[in-house]
Inverse folding.
């Protein structure tokens, strides 16, 4: 039982980390987060 | 119950991984460290979680992830060469191929996945997620062991750690103790600099609580390697401490208060460090290392995976019929003793090529992490990078010290510091890009620095 409580609590933490990391990583990958500016084709 | 819980977690994370491919890599790390299919009973035992998460990592990366050019250091080349060498060694040199091939199957996946990881974990958020997942996985094991120890349920020789030795790498007490000690520096850094955990009292107390649980769990593991690792960690903590005298006083007070509370069996176990020459576990390790040295003189290319099964050693131990007489010793013959050292394991099994490749990768990880730490520790806005590099440096030292007494040369724990050092070097190079762009005539835009323009101008 002790072990199961430890498993549940720790996995809630891992899940939080995964979900937050996924969200932040998506924001990083969004165009507004891209730090290399490539002009649109028309402007080249 | 556990099967359902683990499987739900796995499937949920896999769904998220379809949108953020590196999450599949985190799942692979989770499966690798916790082996849920071996510690839970029921339908999950028959599901190839490692295979699914490994394939998902590569597929999702290829299909959905943004590809960026990354710098691959010499450590990375060492990993690839190590993969090539262990394969050639198993095909041509292995003296016990029936035992060597099963270990090769696990070793090559570990090495190749380690070589693949820097492609996935290439930003700060991703690196933090990787480190936190490793911390949390070791934390799962530590949490339950610490509770057992604190509640008085931990007894030397009878406390099973996370399914035991055959379930996962963390099931072996010395390996667990080393891993637990080596994540403490990361927790200390993440408590100050983290994007994933919002700053605040919760983060600080979570870190303090985590470190306390880890220390209790290390005691509960009854591993002498753990004591050595904690001693090394204390030296680094003292080195980093701003108030060294205060640190020493606090450490002495904690020591004085906690020693009487320690189980007597733990104290007597640690005292065996002083009688290593007659204590069977320690003396058999030394005897195996000497056997390995002689073996490699005749077989410089090693004997292949699992070749320790060939050894037959004579060990001096305390005479069990007269346990209270320290002069009463007896000679015992032992066979097929494991290496209990990453160095001798690599040397004996993979010969000098394997040994040199692994140690080169580890030493380079150490030096590169140190370099990144030194370059960033006092740079405003990059303290997090310096901090993580410093933590990885200490973690590498602990692995190299603790690893001298445990045989995990081809398990994932040995390769994580190498992966983290590769990612750190890339993050350091990326961090320098704005400066390079500024110097080359790049300019800031609403979305950041226009590196591409700067690069074009350089060209």
């Amino acid at each position: 039982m002790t072990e199961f409580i430890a498993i549940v609590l720790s996995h809630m933490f891992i899940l939080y980390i995964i979900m937050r990391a996924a969200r932040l990583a998506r924001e990083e990958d969004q165009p507004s987060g891209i730090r290399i500016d490539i002009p649109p084709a028309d402007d080249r | 119950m556990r099967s359902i819980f683990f499987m739900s977690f796995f499937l949920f994370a896999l769904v998220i991984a379809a949108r953020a491919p590196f999450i599949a890599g985190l799942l692979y790390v989770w499966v690798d460290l916790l082996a849920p299919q071996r510690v839970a009973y029921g339908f999950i035992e028959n599901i190839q979680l490692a295979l699914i998460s490994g394939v998902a990592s590569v597929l999702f990366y290829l299909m959905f992830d943004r590809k960026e050019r990354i710098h691959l250091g010499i450590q990375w080349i060492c990993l690839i060469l190590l993969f090539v060498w262990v394969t050639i060694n198993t095909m041509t040199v292995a003296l016990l191929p029936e035992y060597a091939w099963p270990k090769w199957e696990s070793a090559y996946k570990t090495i190749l996945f380690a070589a693949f990881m820097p492609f996935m974990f290439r930003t700060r958020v991703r690196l933090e997620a990787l480190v936190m997942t490793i911390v949390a996985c070791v934390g799962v094991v530590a949490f339950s062991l610490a509770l057992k120890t604190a509640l008085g349920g931990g007894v030397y020789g009878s406390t099973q750690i996370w399914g035991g030795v055959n379930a996962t790498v963390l099931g072996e007490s010395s390996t667990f103790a080393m891993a637990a000690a080596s994540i403490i520096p990361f927790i200390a850094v993440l408590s100050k600099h983290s994007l994933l955990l919002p700053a605040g009292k919760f983060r600080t107390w979570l870190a303090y609580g985590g470190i306390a649980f880890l220390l209790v769990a290390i005691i509960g593991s009854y591993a002498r390697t753990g004591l050595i690792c904690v001693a090394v960690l204390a030296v680094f903590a003292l080195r980093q401490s701003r108030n060294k005298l205060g640190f020493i006083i606090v450490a002495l007070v904690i020591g004085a208060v906690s020693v009487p509370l320690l189980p007597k069996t733990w104290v007597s176990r640690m005292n065996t460090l002083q009688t290593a020459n007659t204590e069977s576990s320690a003396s058999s390790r030394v005897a195996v290392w000497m056997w390995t040295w002689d073996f490699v003189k005749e077989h410089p290319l090693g004997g292949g995976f699992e070749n320790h099964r060939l050894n037959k050693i004579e060990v001096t131990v305390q005479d069990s019929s007269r346990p209270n007489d320290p002069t009463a010793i007896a000679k015992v013959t032992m066979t097929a003793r494991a290496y209990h050292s990453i160095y001798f394991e690599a040397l004996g099994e993979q010969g000098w090529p394997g040994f040199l490749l692994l140690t080169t990768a580890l030493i380079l990880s150490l030096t590169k992490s140190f370099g990144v730490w030194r370059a960033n520790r006092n740079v405003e806005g990059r303290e997090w990078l310096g901090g993580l590099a410093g933590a990885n440096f200490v973690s590498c030292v602990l692995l190299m010290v603790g690893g001298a007494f445990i045989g995990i040369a081809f398990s994932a724990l040995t390769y994580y510091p190498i992966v983290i050092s590769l990612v750190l070097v890339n993050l350091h190079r990326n961090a320098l890009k704005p400066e390079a762009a500024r110097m080359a005539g790049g300019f800031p835009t609403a979305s950041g620095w226009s590196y591409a323009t700067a690069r074009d101008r350089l060209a």
User: Anything to note?
Assistant: Helices of chain A lie at 2-29. Chain A touches chain B through 32 residues (CB under 8 Å).
